[in-house]
Design goal:
The chain has helices spanning 3-10, 14-28, 39-50, 68-83, 88-92, 115-120, 143-151, 164-177, 211-215, 237-245, 264-270, 293-300; strands at 95-97, 100-102, 133-137, 156-161, 183-187, 199-204, 250-259, 277-278, 288-292. With 301 residues, it is α/β, with parallel strands linked by helices. It folds into two domains: 3-92, Orthogonal Bundle (Helicase, Ruva Protein, domain 3); 109-300, Vaccinia Virus protein VP39 (Rossmann fold), CATH 3.40.50.150. The strands form two sheets. It has a seven-stranded mixed β-sheet with strand order 5-4-3-6-7-9-8. The chain has a two-stranded antiparallel ribbon with strand order 1-2. It starts with a helix and ends with a helix. 41% of the residues are buried. The model has no long low-confidence stretch (mean pLDDT 94).
Length: 301
């Protein structure tokens, strides 16, 4: 009997399993970066999510005794997290972005962008349209675009990706939110399928990991689709294409917002003449720039 089977047999309460998971996560030196940043929060999340309980489940109820089936279910999840180094979101099929729950699996990246803060603020002061048309480019799970629709009820949103697998997940999330047809999924290699579409906001969290960082990533990241992570030797192959083409698909007062993560110094160096606005975040995060349609036309058209 291994320690996970032993836990399923002998541990009884939510508290027992949180304590066990936190201890094992700490000893196993897991990487945290797909929703939590420490062993305790990860332990709380995995236990509550496997029990289909909300994140704000009352602590006084943590002494509730669990059924044998529930105990085995949680112990199996803890084992997968440790032995397979599988991110929590792929075990529970739950990802969170801007306070909204999304379905996720290995076809898409786990939501974790600081752009959530911008969505919650309705992109104030840069987005000036009362009924904005928004494009979530390289959408993955569709979390950015769907969250935009949730926070801006008068918006119309297109979520696009080159990956058919990712779009299947995005469509599931659109249907789960009840946002079709106000949010629509579109298969597109960057802007290739956009035709005459115009948007007040194009927001993108494209692949931006360079070759060095890609090879040095913790094991957890190798469960994610590589197409959603790497973008050439410097991580900017896709971003350069977006910069060259975006102006054509923006309205007169439209803006482009793109996350490039740790590749931002390389982007700034390559395009030193471009007046990028680098956005700041109260909850942490960097590497997100903003350019207006006029700036794009001046420097990339």
């Amino acid at each position: 009997m291994d320690k996970y089977q032993n836990a399923a047999k002998n541990l009884k309460t939510i508290t027992d399993f949180i304590r066990f998971a936190a201890s094992e996560f700490e000893k196993s030196e897991l990487f945290f970066g797909h929703g939590t940043d420490n062993a305790w929060d990860e332990a709380v999340a995995i236990v509550l999510q496997m029990l289909e309980l909300p994140n704000d489940y009352p602590v006084v109820m943590f002494e509730a005794r669990l059924l044998q089936e529930e105990r085995e279910h949680i112990a199996s999840a803890i084992k997968s997290r440790i032995e397979e180094r599988k991110p929590l979101a792929y075990i529970t099929n739950k990802g969170y972005f801007a306070g909204i729950e999304f379905y996720v699996d290995e076809r898409v990246l786990v939501p974790r962008s600081p752009i959530a803060e911008l969505v919650e603020a309705q992109f104030n002061p840069w987005l000036i349209s009362d009924e904005p048309r928004i494009l979530d480019l390289c959408c993955g799970s569709g979390c950015i675009g769907i969250a935009c629709a949730a926070y801006m009820p008068d918006s119309e949103v297109v979520v696009s990706d080159i990956s058919v697998d990712a779009l299947q997940v995005a469509q599931q999330n659109i249907d789960q939110a009840g946002f079709y047809p106000r949010v629509q999924a579109l298969e597109s290699d960057i802007f290739s399928a956009m035709r005459d579409m115009k948007f007040d906001l194009i927001v993108s969290n494209p692949p931006y990991v360079d070759e060095d960082d890609l090879s040095d990533m913790p094991a957890e990241f190798f469960h994610e689709p590589e197409i959603g992570l790497g973008s050439g030797s410097d991580g900017l192959e896709l971003t350069r294409k977006i910069l060259q083409q975006a102006a054509e698909f923006l309205t007169e007062h439209g803006v482009l917002i793109v996350e490039v993560g740790n590749s931002w110094p390389a982007l700034q160096e390559q395009f030193s003449q471009v007046p990028f606005t680098w956005l700041e975040f109260e909850r942490g995060g960097d590497g997100v720039f903003l350019l207006t349609k006029q700036q794009l036309e001046e420097h990339f058209s």
